Amino acid sequence: MSATSKIEWTDSTWNPVRGCSKVSPGCTHCYAETFAERFRGVKGHPFEHGFDLRLIQDKLGDPIRWSAPRKIFVNSMSDLFHEDVPDEYIEKVCRVMLSANWHTYQVLTKRAGRMRDLLRNKLRSAAVAPHIWWGVSVENRQHGLPRIDQLRAAGATVAFLSIEPLLEDLGTFSLDGIQWVIVGGESGPRSRPMDPEWVRSIRTLCQSSRVPFFFKQWGGTRKKKAGRILDGRIYDQLPEHPAHAVVSPDERLEILEGLAVAGQIRAIRSR
Ligand code: SF4
């Protein structure tokens, strides 16, 4: 878990799963894969096994250790709904999110069909929890737009789109049932270009549908220099989210004991 994140729309990242595999053109230059593969074979490093998918049980209780409420991006280095993550493990992740309800969770997937199926059934209580936001990645029309329908069908209380990397003009599409839209261009040496008109078109759609719009970055080879100003301003709107109470160490300990996450109990006791 990272205490602070450089990702503009979140505060922290939490990775109870590491590693993934590619499913669509948005994955072509996956930053998580590039990062993870740098450390393949480095003994003792969290990414010693590169980008191979692994369940990280020791990380399961991490959000409970964090007393201050924050926005947490779940699995920035993986996809919670990857086919190799068992249903039971996803349920455990949801139990943590439901228990540590002083945070706001942002779960983002490209496996929207599996997410829909689970949120409609086994994960219903997590689907309707307002502090857990469920999102899909949308990079183009062919692969991305169908995910929006699958997300809508999941019946989440807070549903969002991460339209990044935006690879083409998406045209007009419905934002019914969507509470938040993030847009960004690809960054890195092989980044694919993003036309400002594609971004403006989505901004117009958000404005007419009254959906909060967050412009994350232009991207490109010099991401910092390109920045995130669109037509003279920064767009960093967020959905409304409930104020969260701060929880005492004793209460957190009780939650950890209830979830039987032993390593994390030791971490709280030693503070
Ligand atoms: S789904 Fe996400 S984490 Fe997985 S390969 Fe694609 S971009 Fe990377």
Can you tell me about this structure?
The protein has ten helices and eleven strands. The protein has helices spanning 31-37, 62-65, 87-99, 112-120, 124-128, 141-154, 196-209, 223-226, 249-259, 262-269, and strands spanning 12-14, 17-18, 54-55, 71-74, 104-109, 132-137, 158-163, 180-184, 213-217, 229-230, 233-234. The strands form three sheets. A seven-stranded parallel β-sheet has the order 1-4-5-6-7-8-9. A two-stranded antiparallel ribbon has the order 2-3. Strand 10 (229-230) and strand 11 form a beta hairpin. Iron/sulfur cluster is lined by residues 20-23, 26-27, 30, 32-33, 78-79, 110.
Number of helices: 10
Q: Uncertain regions: pLDDT < 50 for 5+ in a row?
A: none
How much helical structure, as a percent, in the residues?
25-40%
The side-by-side strand order for the widest beta sheet comes to 1-4-5-6-7-8-9
What order do the helices and strands follow? Answer: EEHEHEHEHHEHEEHEHEEHH
Instruction: Report the C-alpha radius of gyration, rounded.
Output: 18 Å
Q: What is the CA-CA span between the terminal residues?
A: 18 Å
Shape estimate: globular
Strand content: 15-25%
The largest β sheet comes out as: 7 strands, parallel
The strand count comes to: 11
What is the residue-mean pLDDT, rounded to a whole number? 94
Ions and ligands: iron/sulfur cluster
Query: In terms of structural class, how would the helical and strand content be classed?
Result: alpha/beta
